Amino acid sequence: MNMIKRTPSMFVPNTMDKFFDKFFNEGLENGANTFNPRTDIAETEKSFEIEVAVPGFNKKDFNIDLNDGLLTISGERKFEKEKSEKNFYSIQTEYGSFKKSFQLPDNIVSDKIEASYENGILSLVIPKDETKKLVSKITVK
Considering all CA atoms of the chain, what is the largest pairwise distance in Å, rounded to the nearest integer? Predict the structure, then answer.
């Protein structure tokens, strides 16, 4: 079997699905240096939970902002060549930057949001304000 040497490039997708995901979600102009990590969003009785799969990052690589109810999570992972100058035959790890934004509902406690990073998963727990209810019953007259 012959191996083909490849150089790292975020623009060359390894599947057509990934190409279309990058095209429609990020556009061509940003596709070369960005990626879209997988994200899970859940709701419990007391909080909203967001998990972002970003293996290989350090805690200091993340920036999390909340501005007028818009939660923005961003980060960057740079490709670093070792001094041994390895010959890569396949690179499937995603490098570059990412940015994800989520519009949060009005019933959150913004100063109690917690973020942690463990085993490649960035987890955010956004507690709900139990005094604010977003559901109300409207009577028809």
Answer: 78
Show Cβ contacts of residue 6 under 8 Å, excluding neighbours closer than 6 positions. 88, 89, 90, 91
Tokens standing for residue 64: 């999390």
Domains and CATH numbers, the chain: 16-127 (2.60.40.790)
Nearest to 126 by CA among 105, 140, 99, 141: 105
State pLDDT tens for residues 28-59.
Answer: 444 457 889 999 999 999 999 999 999 989 99
Q: What is the pTM of this model?
A: 0.68
Here the tokens at position 111 are 């100063």
Per DSSP (E only), the strands in 35-113 are: 39-43, 47-53, 62-67, 70-77, 96-103
Answer for the pair 125, 104: CB distance below 8 angstroms, yes or no.
Answer: no
